[in-house]
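Workshop exercise sheet. Pairs work together: one partner reads the sequence aloud, the other fills in the structure field after running the prediction. Swap roles for the next sheet.
Pair: D.N. / O.F.
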Amino acid sequence: MSRKHSSVSNTDYATYRQIMDELLRPIVATDLDGDTLRRLYESKLVYLENLRVKAFRSINAPQPLVQPPGSSSAQAAGEAHFTRDDYALILEAISTSRAHLKQVVLLAISENLSRRKSRLQP
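Structure field:
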């Protein structure tokens, strides 16, 4: 892995560690219309899918048995990598977000049908 790619992966992991608790929570929908909330959940799901792929690759990347020349043990110890627990949390966040998105869509459909029904009644 190149040094540039490694620093990007470490940044992704650092960001993930900062927001990992938020990933499982629903999006606060105060003052948001249904369409905006749907788009936010879709964006969250795209982010989570990208994170899932990075975590999968990190977990399954071959680990060198010998430290590469020019890297110190302190450097290697400072590198953070996704774990299987991180991967499981990301999968749970994806499942939870899909369920929330489904609820948002069903609510929008229900509201739309109710509006149409009220318009048709004299």
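Discussion prompt: The chain has one domain: 3-20+31-62+73-120. What would you look at next?
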